[in-house]
Amino acid sequence: MAGGAALSIAAFRKLGRLQAPSVTQTPFGGAVTTWSEVASVWLDLTIPRTRSGGGPAETPVTTDVREAVCRDHADAAQGQRLVVDGDRWRVVRLVRDAPKMGLMTLHLEKD
């Protein structure tokens, strides 16, 4: 995936589960979020890296990020989460037909 290398089916070595949130109101005025599986996808994952943020007067914030490339799935959407090897990642951005037609790139942050 790095450096614009061509992807083949053999590159998709990790199995991940895309999940969508469903928020239900409780009788006491609270909310409960449950996650249901939308799709299982074979992925090519980048190595996790850390991104730092926050301004000079703010407490520094570090976030684990990574990207995943897989076959495009019609039900995939930003705001879902991807579960891979027991780790949960928020889909913060989804780019279809990238790096090539029929694939999508998921930009992920550790949940």
Key terms:
7 strands, mainly beta, globular, 111 residues, 6-stranded antiparallel β-barrel, 59% strand
| Strand line-up in the sheet with most strands | 1-2-4-7-6-5
Structural class: mainly beta
- Intertermini distance: 23 Å
Q: How large a portion of the residues is in β-strands, by DSSP E?
A: over 45%
Helix-strand blueprint:
Elements: E1 14-25, E2 31-45, E3 49-53, E4 61-71, E5 81-84, E6 87-96, E7 103-110
Antiparallel strand pairs: 1-2, 1-5, 2-4, 3-4, 4-7, 5-6, 6-7
Please characterize this protein's 3D structure.
The protein is mainly beta. It is 0% helix and 59% strand. It has strands at 14-25, 31-45, 49-53, 61-71, 81-84, 87-96, 103-110. The radius of gyration is 16 Å and the shape is globular. The model has no long low-confidence stretch (mean pLDDT 89).
Q: What is shown here, in short?
A:
The protein has 111 residues and is mostly beta strands.
